[in-house]
Write a structure and sequence with these properties.
Residues 4-10, 36-49 and 367-371 have low confidence and may be disordered. With 371 residues, the protein is of the alpha+beta class. Helix 2 runs antiparallel to helix 3 (153-178). The longest helix has 40 residues, at 2-41. A hairpin with a 2-residue loop joins strand 14 (306-308) and strand 15. The protein contains 3 helices and 19 strands. It folds into 4 domains: 1-30; 58-70 and 295-368, conserved putative lor/sdh protein from methanococcus maripaludis s2 fold; 75-81 and 213-293, Beta Barrel (Elongation Factor Tu (Ef-tu), domain 3), CATH 2.40.30.170; 86-201, no CATH class.
């Protein structure tokens, strides 16, 4: 048995040696080809190029720097006032004999509105006129006698004084008669009367109000921290809850030199045109004061900005690379920021995805917004 096993192993060894001798050239050629292929492909690399290389730009959103309008605005509340407003009151006492207006209707300056009983005043005027006529005659005779040497200096002086006193009495009587009629002091709209025919009125009693509303005034308050930027001529935009969907523009014409000590606020007054007479005195107004406005401001979205320490940066896109750029900013409004230094109109900047960038990395614009 052992002899048979030995003969079998010997036969296997002879066959293996023959196969190695027979196929050795082909094996050596195959190994050579594998070595050449490995040498030509270079060292083994991980799947995909390294991040940040030109072969793998970071996807971001980019947009151009734009130019537009930006304004510095301050919000406030106020109330509308008539351009002119007066409550008509008599200067003398008397009984109302005529009411010459309709409530709520316009009136022209100088138009008579209310008449008081003027019988007594008219009689006093006639009496004063008679006294003046007599005094003038007496004064003329005194002057004539004095010129002839038949009259005295005292008689002439007394006649002169009497004439002056009577003329003053006439002027007083005419003034009282004039005040028995109340006139419109300016063009306006009359309010609701507080008298009736037959009423006896006293000096200072309210008769009716008259309002000039072709243009209105707006009174509003601005916190004192903005005092240095307030100026006459600034534009305001007014919105009213009573007239939704519309706004009205006016201009500041006065700033009160004294601040309100209760609210620590500056008091401003502006004029507001009212050609349609939609606005009425007493309305509550939401006021926007436009302190400064620029039509050529350089604007970028807020999302494009990054704060690092106390500085503001953005990434400009230059030849496919993200270049970190320091900025100086100004006003902010509606998601946009004014850039006062660091960018020029038309430059491309990264607006989304800047957090994953480093200075100098290649980027690919996933979306271009704006034009």
């Amino acid at each position: 048995m052992k002899r048979l096993l030995g003969l079998g192993f010997l036969a296997l060894a002879v066959a293996a040696g023959f196969a190695a001798w027979r196929f050795a050239p082909e094996l050596r050629a195959g190994l050579a080809r594998l070595e050449a292929l490995a040498a030509s492909s270079g060292p083994t690399r991980p799947a995909g190029p390294p991040p940040g290389s030109r072969e793998a730009p970071i996807p971001v959103e980019i947009s151009p720097v734009t130019v537009g309008r930006v304004s510095h605005e301050i919000e406030a509340v106020g109330s509308l006032r008539s351009n002119e407003s007066v409550i008509l009151r008599p200067e003398i006492s008397g009984r109302v004999t005529e009411i010459l207006f309709e409530e709520g209707q316009p009136a022209r300056r100088g138009a008579p509105l209310v008449r008081l009983n003027a019988a007594v005043a008219r009689a006093q005027v006639n009496q004063a006129k008679a006294s003046v006529a007599l005094s003038r005659a007496n004064h003329a005779r005194a002057e004539e006698l004095y010129a002839k040497g038949a009259g005295t200096q005292r008689a002439r002086d007394e006649s002169t004084a009497k004439l002056a006193a009577d003329e003053a009495s006439l002027a007083l009587a005419e003034a009282i008669l004039e005040r028995s009629t109340i006139y419109a002091p300016f063009d306006g709209v009359l309010g609701l009367r507080q008298i009736a025919i037959g009423d006896y009125v006293n000096p200072g009693q309210a008769l009716v109000n008259i309002e000039s509303i072709d243009q209105l005034k707006v009174d509003f308050r601005i916190p004192e921290i903005h005092a240095q930027v307030l100026a006459v001529g600034q534009t305001i935009r007014v919105r009213l809850d009573a007239i939704p969907g519309r706004s009205f523009e006016g201009a500041v014409y006065a700033v009160d030199p004294a601040f309100d000590p209760n609210g620590r606020a500056a008091i401003l007054r502006a004029r507001l045109p009212n050609p349609e007479t939609l606005l009425r005195p007493g309305m509550f107004a939401r006021v926007t004061l436009i302190v400064e406005q620029r039509d050529d401001a350089i604007l970028v979205p807020e999302t494009a900005l990054m704060a690092i320490g106390g500085d503001i940066f953005t990434y400009r896109v230059v030849e496919g690379r993200a270049v970190r750029t320091k900025l100086l900013t100004g006003l902010r409004r509606d998601g946009m920021v004014q850039v006062t230094q660091g960018l020029a109109p038309g430059e491309m900047i990264v607006t989304e995805g800047a957090q994953k960038l480093r200075d100098g990395q290649y980027v690919r614009g996933a979306e271009i917004r704006g034009s």
